Amino acid sequence: xxxxxxxxxxxxxxxxxxxxxFTGPDGRFVFQNTEVRRYMSVAALRPGYERGAETAxxxxxxxxxxxxxxxxxxxxxxxxxxxxxxxLGLRVQAYRxxxxxxxxxxxxxxxxxxxxxxxxxxxxxPAGQYLVRVMxxxxxxxxxxxxGARIAGSSEAYIAQYYPGVAEQSAAQVLKxxxxxxxxxxxxxxxxxxxxxxxxxxxxxxxxxxxxELSRRGELPMGNRVAVxxxxxxxxxxxxxxxxxxxxxxxxxxxxxxxxxxxxxxxNAPMDGVNLTLNRPVDIEVLVHGAEAELRPGFFDMALxxxxxxxxxxxxxxxxxxxxxxxxxxxxxxxxxxxxRRYRGxxxxxxxxxxxxxxxxxxxxxxxxxxxxxxxxxxxxxPAQLDVSVLAGGKPVTSAQVLIFNGQGESxxxxxxxxxxxxxxxxxxxxxxxxxALPEGLExxxxxxxxxxxxxxxxxxxxxxxxxxxxLQLELAQEDQN
Length: 482
Fold this sequence. Notes:
Blueprint: E1 13-16, E2 19-22, E3 41-45, E4 52-55, E5 73-80, E6 91-100, E7 103-113, E8 119-125, E9 128-143, E10 156-158, E11 161-162, E12 175-177, E13 182-188, E14 191-193, E15 195-201, E16 210-215, E17 223-229, E18 234-240, E19 243-253, E20 256-266, E21 271-276, E22 282-289, E23 300-306, E24 316-320, E25 326-331, E26 334-343, E27 347-354, E28 357-358, E29 364-366, E30 375-381, E31 384-392, E32 395-396, E33 400-405, E34 411-416, E35 422-428, E36 431-439, H1 449-452, E37 460-464, E38 469-475
Parallel strand pairs: 5-13, 9-17, 15-21, 22-30, 31-38
Antiparallel strand pairs: 1-2, 1-3, 3-4, 5-8, 6-7, 6-9, 9-11, 9-12, 10-14, 15-18, 16-19, 17-18, 19-20, 22-25, 23-24, 23-26, 26-29, 27-28, 27-30, 31-32, 31-35, 33-34, 33-36, 36-37
């Protein structure tokens, strides 16, 4: 059944276990003499729709299920140059925007290369939020021997742009697509004189593929055509405008991944002699002081979260336990935020440092090929506790989340309420905090100070002392509150 219209869907492929069949004109399907085991589901597929599924009950001999399918959305449009003329061969990329742990995450979705009419069509997109970006020309070529003329150079480089025509991700317009929606947009992209970069990967492994990308600091990679000599690691990158960039390379051999990056300044001329060295990620040791007898499995959870928006690295979590050598594994160069996600002890975190850097207020910097000093966590006795009740119109809510911010406005914790709207926040250090109650499941960038400004007047401030236990009531804040 179409989830929007309620009309039956003909010729949908329905599967149940090893059996499958197509729906008839009325959208019906029947599976007979079929064993139903626990957690088995009936799934349906139809071109133009997202996959749908419903779980079958194992304790019923006869049952009726309705599988609802949501239509894909699409974005169509054109890319024109500054003179209003069509541009052939530019890659247009959609990124799906989701919120995870209070941070916006972009995942590559549909893409298209503009045709001779400068048109593109981004299809098979589930309902949700998206950014759309014209990346420029994009492609790679691997060769042996001399490069010759395998990639033709271009005199023009088209500057990567997010819709509606901005270079920075922070200024891009978020496009909200409904199920089955067809949206039309149009880009105007500026061009600049194009140059090429020529260099070499110093520790190249012959005949192992390498991916090279160019980006402005903190942004997603641009579109550039690249040629790589698989025998000796020499490379050429085309369609490069003048400016400051970060050149990165990635190589994966079996399960091991290596990366390298270098900051470069491209002037108004071709650039030669760029050398890159690829390194494996480093491991960072974690030491806990002040509660050796208290540490137990799952004592507290923490994560390293990249501050570099263009990198796309997932947070690196660990669970601190007693008698286990702690550490973050597989950390790439960059800037990271320490996220103390959940604490289950009878003390509080008084300090987190690495080589004299205060990681509760500063970022951890990891450089190429070398691990930073161990992360040292100092625990202290006398944690504070906040017992919180969340109300809506004076009545307890059945579900809510409570966000806790420190005195600098940085998110430090999030807790989920029970069915009565109650929760306890334990293991707090003495200090000033702001508390905000939001509906459960509301996706909001609470790690983004600009987003949280509109909730400032709904946040409750509280000063807690060491060992204190406070009882608070919070009024549920809605997304549209200012």
